[in-house]
Design brief:
The protein has about 300 residues and is mainly alpha-helical. It has a single domain, classed as Rhopdopsin 7-helix transmembrane proteins. Helix content is about 75%, strand content about 5%. The chain has a 3-stranded mixed β-sheet. Helix 1 packs across helix 11 and helix 3 packs antiparallel against helix 9.
Length: about 300
């Protein structure tokens, strides 16, 4: 082991070595990234500008938009840079840093989605006590808990990665650093590391999903007891967008990490990662803008005010 050279950097192969295809992909992913930034910033700005949206539901939504910006920014800028350079290298320390932020933001977003589901459950099933239960202090504590839990999980993941020894192949068949790829490249025995990360990740993920599903069951039960059709529609409309985002979030995670690994096509392995890392953060603000009338109205008013101010 001592005669083997210690790896100091990894090579990210990305999507293709064809320069023309790389240019097309660069333009496409740059456009998606810009839409992600502007879409989520528009959500945050609209919520901050509209006093009617200074409620727990929209406070959580603004934090979700911030996480989407951060999550996309961890991987996409580096990927765009790789499209324009021949040497697609990343240092070991930068790779570990990328893994840390991916894990932190991913777990934080999953827990925040469960918090948002609980918020909708409280609003629909316990409307008279809603503002007492979801006070500003409680909201802040829930957001902090979600993000801090993600931080602790990511910190443990990263510390476990730093105990591994890399002395052989350093080529990652992907556009970003992820723990599963690094385990494959390690010269160390990674079984214990993988078991700890998988077990804790499964507990956090399933716990957040169960809270979300339990909230939905109570919400649906409460809505079905509403007599008027208009009342049912209004109640359902307040969390339709959240359901869509949750399905998209967990669907891509399950397809990415739980489906059998394919040895035939690296592109098939990267496709769900593209959706998870790049497409989902772009779609979330679009979903909320289309499905939530309050957000749509706030964004429209903000744009109209900006156009009016610029024309004066």
């Amino acid at each position: 082991m001592q005669n083997q050279t210690e790896v100091t950097e990894f090579i990210l192969l990305g999507f293709s070595s064809d320069p023309r295809l790389q240019l097309v992909l660069f333009v496409a992913f740059l456009l998606i990234y810009l839409i992600t930034l502007f879409g989520n910033l528009a959500i945050i700005s609209a919520i901050r500008a509209d006093p009617h949206l200074h409620t727990p539901m929209y406070v959580f939504l603004s934090h979700l938009a911030f996480l989407d910006i951060a999550f996309s920014s961890v991987t996409v800028p580096n990927m765009l840079d790789d499209f324009l350079t021949e040497r697609k290298n990343i240092s070991v320390h930068c790779c570990f840093t990328q893994v840390f932020f991916v894990m932190c933001l991913s777990v934080g977003e999953g827990l925040l989605l469960s918090v948002m589901a609980y918020d909708r459950y409280t609003a629909i099933c316990q409307p008279l006590h809603y503002m007492v239960i979801m006070s500003k202090q409680v909201c802040a504590s829930l957001v902090f808990s979600a993000l801090f839990t993600g931080f602790l999980y990511a910190l443990l993941d990263t510390l476990l990665l730093t105990t591994l020894h890399f002395c052989g192949p350093n080529v990652i068949h992907h556009f970003s650093c992820e723990a599963p790829q690094l385990f494959k490249l390690s010269c160390s025995n990674t079984f214990a590391n993988q078991m700890v990360i998988f077990t804790l990740g499964s507990l956090l993920g399933m716990g957040a999903l169960l809270i979300t599903l339990a909230s939905y069951v109570h919400i649906i039960s409460a809505v079905l007891r509403i007599q008027s059709t208009e009342g049912k529609h209004k109640a359902f409309s307040t969390y339709t967008s959240h359901v869509t985002v949750v399905v998209l979030y967990y669907g891509t995670i399950f397809f990415r990490y739980l489906k059998p690994s394919s040895k035939d096509s690296q592109d098939q392995e990267m496709a769900p990662s593209v959706v998870y890392f790049i497409v989902t953060p772009m779609l979330n603000p679009i979903i909320y803008s289309l499905c939530n009338q309050e957000v749509k109205r706030a964004v429209r008013n903000m744009v109209c005010r900006k156009i009016k101010n610029e024309s004066m």
